Task: inverse folding
């Protein structure tokens, strides 16, 4: 059996090359510099790293990165005011609120306050609903990345059994919706699923989005399965046990270098899309 | 094995009894008469029947029914204007646009224009997204009815394998979301599903929402399954083959008298909810 390593860096490079041209055109022909505003609340070191990575990726491509760093002791109201200001700032095309915010802040309320046309990270319930109904512009970036990888490698979801393990609002739910829109038969599993190995045994496509290192084992999967690992745990470890899953898979994303880099590319793409919409 | 016929008329009666009290209170203590506006476009006889049934159910309960009947040759703009007027009319608490509208009208655009706080029929993508994220006020009425029947009969979805056959925006998708929110492992099937009997064979709960008479056969189901038939085809026939499914089921909804009457009750409930919210 031919085995394909789904190389996220390759997919990402191709996307960013095309984006660079679009950014050039926006600047030269329309005097628009795409701009992503990122909001970081507090001092969580991994969140700081993520925001910095996203900012750097923007700047490399000529996208302006407006970094807003708020102190951990602000309240929900102050965060809402910041978002409101960015909603009304015509020079900002996309808004990303880095998850998680300190627990005294109503994160969901903050997400919901992001204007739908600037929700390039796909966190609002309206954005999710539009995605599920087939006309969403900016699905959450990791689900969008997973679909992009499938498309890039010519793997069709049509009529396949897709099993998504995880049901978070920015990962499990939207990737289930996107796979359903491409005519997969979709099963969404989670911590209350009784017999995960039994459900996985009929999967043609598996999306791992659990947040538990090396949780999914190859013994649970059938031969020829496509494995997409959206997990990213301490020490660069995914949610699937790579070695055993590799044995069974016809195609698999590595961690790192799989879904991760494409996720950032989708954020960049959505920001450029939003800038083009603002023309 | 004990077999339960899930009696929608019984469930419905109980809901409407409680609603009658709430309508009384709204009238006597707040001088608010809950009001549902229904919009019918064109002369489709079944649509006329549905709208009349809904209007009658409202009036029996003391809910005002404002019936708007537009001619088949209006354009999308005129329909949007009508909805806009109702959105701005404080005496109207719920708006129902009867599906389908004539094909030259952009039905989705019309649905989307209904104000979220008046979307008692659960047709907007925002309403769907909120439902899927667990804070939607008015899920579509048939999915809400299915959950209500399960609750009434004390059937928990927790950890069960639920298979939904159908993926429409007002039925298959939202009922999948609601079952997932109650911790079922949910599989959504549709016309592109390759081997429906195989998928159904592990189902603990089946929701039939296909629109094909007597499509689902008992031979495909395991013993003890709970069968919820949301189908309603010509001649009062559901989407499941009742006799063979009855044999396998521990609980099953009849057609008629199952999901149907509860669906209308949920519409009434949402209208009263919306009227209470307007206090």
Result:
């Amino acid at each position: 059996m031919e085995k394909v390593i789904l190389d996220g860096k390759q997919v990402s490079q191709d996307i960013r090359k095309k984006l660079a041209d679009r950014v050039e055109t926006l600047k030269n022909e329309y005097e628009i510099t795409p701009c992503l505003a990122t909001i970081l609340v507090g001092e969580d070191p991994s969140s700081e790293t993520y925001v910095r990575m996203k900012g750097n990726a923007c700047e490399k491509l000529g996208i302006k990165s407006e970094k807003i760093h708020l102190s951990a002791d602000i309240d929900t109201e102050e965060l809402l005011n910041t978002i409101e200001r960015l909603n009304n700032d015509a020079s900002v095309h996309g808004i990303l609120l880095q998850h998680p915010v300190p627990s005294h802040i109503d994160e969901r309320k903050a997400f919901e306050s992001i204007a739908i046309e600037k929700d390039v990270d796909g966190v609002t319930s309206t954005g999710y609903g539009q995605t599920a109904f087939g006309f969403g512009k900016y699905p959450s970036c990791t689900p969008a990345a997973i679909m992009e990888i499938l498309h890039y490698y010519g793997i069709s979801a049509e009529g396949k059994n897709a099993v998504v393990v995880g049901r978070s609002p920015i990962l499990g739910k939207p990737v289930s919706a996107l796979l359903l829109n491409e005519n997969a038969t979709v099963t969404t599993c989670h911590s209350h699923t009784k017999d995960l190995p039994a459900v996985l045994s009929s999967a043609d496509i598996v999306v791992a989005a659990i947040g538990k290192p090396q949780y999914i084992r190859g013994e649970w999967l059938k031969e020829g399965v496509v494995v997409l690992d959206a997990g990213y745990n301490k020490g660069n470890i995914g949610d699937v046990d790579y070695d055993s899953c590799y044995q069974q898979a016809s195609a698999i994303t590595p961690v790192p270098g799989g879904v991760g880099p494409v996720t950032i590319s989708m954020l960049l793409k959505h920001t450029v899309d939003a800038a083009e919409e603002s023309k």
Summary: DSSP finds ten helices and nine strands in chain A.
